[in-house]
Amino acid sequence: MGKRIGAGKRGRSPGRTAALLGAGALATGLLAGCGSSGGLKINVYYSPEDNFQKVVDQCNAKAAGQYEIVYNKLPRGSDDQRLQMARRLAAGDTAMDILGLDITWVPEFAEAGWVEEWTGANKAEATQGVLQGPLETATWNGKLFAATKNTNVQLLWYDDRITPTPPKTWDEMMQDSQQLKAQHKPYQIVFTGAQYEGLVVVYNTLVESMGGHILSDDGKSVVMDDGAVKALALLKQVSSSGLTDPSLTNQKEDDVRQTFQRGDAAFELNWPFVYASYAKEKGADISHFKWAVYPEAAAGQPAKTTIGGFDLAVSTYSQHKPQAFQAALCLRSAESQKFSAINDGVPPSIESVFHDDTPVDASKPASADNPNMAMKYPMRDAILAALKDAAVRPLTPVYQNASTVMSKILSPPSAIDPQATAEKLRVQLNDALQSKGVIP
Amino acid sequence: MVMGGVATTGRKVRWGLVDILVLVFALVPVLWVVSLSFKTKDTLTDGSFIPVQWTWQNYADIFQTSEFVLALINSIGIAIISTVIAVVVGTMAAYAIARLDFPGKQFLVGISLLIAMFPQVSLVTPLFNIERSLSLFDTWPGLILPYITFALPLSIYTLSAFFREIPWELEKAAKMDGATPAQAFRKVIAPLAAPGVFTTAILVFIFCWNDFLFAISLTSTTASRTVPAALSFFTGSSQFEDPTGQVCAAAVVITIPIILFVLFFQRRIVAGLTSGAVKG
Amino acid sequence: MSHAVTEAPAETPKKAKPALSEGKKAERRLGLWLCAPAAIVMIAVTGYPILYSIWLSLQRYDLRFPAQHEFIWFSNYAAVLSNSYWWTAFGTTMFLTVVSVAIEFVLGMVLALIMHRTLVGRGLIRTVALIPYGIVTVVAAFSWYYAWTPKYGYLANALAGSGAPLTDRWPSLFVIILAEVWKTTPFMALLLMAGLALVPEDLLKAAAMDGANAWQRFTKVMIPVMKPAILVALLFRTLDAFRIFDNIFVLTNGAQDTSSVSMQTYNNLVKGLNLGIGSTMSVLIFITVAIIAFVFIKVFGTAAPGSDTGGKR
């Protein structure tokens, strides 16, 4: 009997070892967690960009010891970024000061009370010289909740050896494509048709270009008017015409880029990042790689292209708001935007930067190693023109719900029935706006 | 080990052919990943299985900053510690469940199954909140504890399946010979349970090594970020381009420890039996 | 020792609750102490999250509208169970689970036999066969994505002609099953092989001498002894298969009705930040999986752990 109890204790020794191991691990972990911190640290949470650290370093140099900006990388996927920030903000995490928000998240974060309003001198500086489209994305309910950092807009890309003059409208584009197909030349029209945000971007562009509306301007009710229905018809027409890539419903931006770059397509609708990639990977043909503004959906009405981009916002749980505002303003200043535009391929949101031709290193002349805006953005006039009359995606706190619902209902585009699909969209978007109903 | 006959050349050839089939089935997609990791950017999508243009650039890129190396260190440390603790704790519990009678046995089995069944995605946010308030967020224990927890159900089930199969007579014989239960366990039972223990160790290690959900949600810096999460932080040349080459190169690099781990342990899975007291 | 003596007069049914012998008490203590670390860790880490999730499923709680947080009993369940997207995803998930687990079981058994009995390169086979399971799931999924996209990949070019398998529902589902089977057959095989290792050679020899052929030896000797290992392998694999996510996410992102219940939960919880609905879906997934587990355990009977004491008495 005594043996049994003894056996019990000895039987526990592996357990004790495990407990010691566990305690040791815990102690190590906790000790490792106690880092040293001297000086005021401003934590910026931003998408991973190769050269953003240099922007941060430049701003730290300018801050001259008042604060130190620390760049915390977020994951590459935008859903992951949003989730990480939302989860921590919902828990009131004070370790985040500046947030890099995709422009569609601003109403959501503002409505949830997670970001601070910009007022006074900060607001003046954040809005000075900013293009209209991007500025709209940073505003919600008449208040400014973020400072625009960079923007993005889609263009029509083509090869001038196949297409000497670019089409002006979607109908023209489809006709040109048919002709090329008959001549056995590359003919496909490629755009992002997978079941995701990219499809919503395309549809939004078509709707706005037709003068229609998906949601009301205040984002509180569903409209889905005539223009929206006509856009559905156009989307269906393009997707079922045999002029698109067979993988259309599985293609995202990079797939579209690669299809065109391989020489399989004639017309590409994509963001300007394709130019830098083409220059790097097919440099010999770059002079034939041309662009134009997005084709018109309704003849005579200039296209209103959906814009993308990032804004910088200050968290309401930040413990150092005044410095956070200052730091954010520096990170998105004209100079920082020019640096990012040239080195990371993200177009600026401040108009003057587009025309600023001084190279990265201002003391030397512009060259391949020391590029300027003109060299990196030969298409800047087209971008500016598109930005002047840009379309924003519906501004509503429940944009993610609406987008998921829309991308599901619009997929596959070839199966759209304009009236029936419009009705489905009306019903389900309504549910999504009430945050009722189940997202597919 | 051979049933009913000698290892004639004919049999060997047949087994050899079967082996080759298995190798092809297992390795072709892996070789495809290796191939993608050696392709240059512009030939990435040319559809050929063997790269037409070879480059080491992807491998160079991932080691350019210390982030990937730190992630590797985190992964190795966290996976090994979690595996050791999970296997030890699981063995103890499995032995008790399989061999002993005590109140709450069914309850424990039920609880561990419950944990294995509940979708982890909705447990992450509450777990995040707990860890934040205990300052475990973004630390090694912050990942080790969930990994142990979610590895225990499989460990317990696998190990108790093994303990069950070991005949009681052995333990009784050992006790008759004067051994204490602990000695009986160590000298008689443990070697026979080795197949189960090493199988469980392999499975737990792979689970901890490849987990993505907890790694991305419960870490925020290189202090504790493991490799699968680090894959999400590689940058392509723009926000729209997936750095496929780098991701594949990283995947190849992180599969190597798995191969080593398995190579080391797979021998021991069957070794236990031949050290053999199991007769009749 | 002492317990053997007290057990001999076994007329009194155990239910009559006599005073426990010292041996039994010590055994219970030992049992409880051995289980304590596991129980403590599991309950401490998951107790609150699971209960909190169930609690959330009874509420209307959208993370972006903290002011609209209210208790609504089972309205979430009604909303989800009456939603056609949920049932489509449910059907798809069931199909994927049943088919992939069935294929994995057969292939896993074959692979286990090969790993156990091959005469040539045993160590190599065992290691190589486990590599698919050891690769990060997302990377493996990407490799299949690239392989099956026309023009990009060797499989599409070789097998799919002019079509794009990942853009149609049924071809996509089969590609997903292929990706799942490739990835997790080693898991089955490993557990089954460890089970195979327990089959006593003497038993097989005896059966052979009694005239049983290979198939009979397999079904009548090996499988019964392997029952516990089979249960573990099938049960855990099915539980995991029902919660398939990574492969679908990378290959099709759930397009063309290939979404699974886990993907839908993710969409509602992460994209919609709707904790109420997301938790409801989690609980429903859990209930489904619990029913499956219950069925398994009933079918396998005494092979479940802890259900009998392995011939102790």
Query: What is the correct CATH architecture of the largest domain in chain A?
Result: 3-Layer(aba) Sandwich
Tell me the CATH superfamily of the largest domain in chain A.
Periplasmic binding protein-like II
Specify the helix fraction band of chain C.
over 70%
Distance between the termini of chain A: 63 Å
* Mean pLDDT rating of chain C: 83
Describe this structure in words.
The complex is a heterotrimer of chains A (about 450), B (about 280) and C (about 325). With about 450 residues, chain A is α/β, with parallel strands linked by helices. Chain A has two domains: about 40-150 and about 305-390, D-Maltodextrin-Binding Protein, domain 2 (3-Layer(aba) Sandwich), CATH 3.40.190.10; about 155-305 and about 400-435, D-Maltodextrin-Binding Protein, domain 2, CATH 3.40.190.10. Chain A is built from 19 helices and eleven strands. In chain A, strands 2-1-3-11-6 form a five-stranded mixed β-sheet. A four-stranded mixed β-sheet of chain A has the order 8-9-7-10, with helices on both faces. In chain A, strands 4-5 form a two-stranded antiparallel ribbon. Helices cover about 70% and strands about 0% of the residues of chain B. Chain B is flat and about 70 Å long. The longest helix of chain B has about 35 residues, at about 65-100. Residues about 270-280 of chain B have low confidence and may be disordered. Chain B is built from eleven helices and no strands. With about 325 residues, chain C is mainly α. Among the domains of chain C are: about 20-50; about 90-260, MetI-like fold (Orthogonal Bundle). Helix content of chain C is about 70%, strand content about 0%. Chain C has helices at about 1-5, 20-55, 75-80, 85-115, 120-135, 135-150, 155-160, 170-195, 200-210, 215-240, 245-250, 260-270, 275-300; strands at about 60, 70. Chain C has a two-stranded antiparallel sheet with strand order 1-2. In chain C, α3 (about 75-80) packs across α13 and α8 (about 170-195) crosses α10 (about 215-240). Chain C is flat and about 75 Å long. The interface between A and B is large, with 52 and 46 residues.
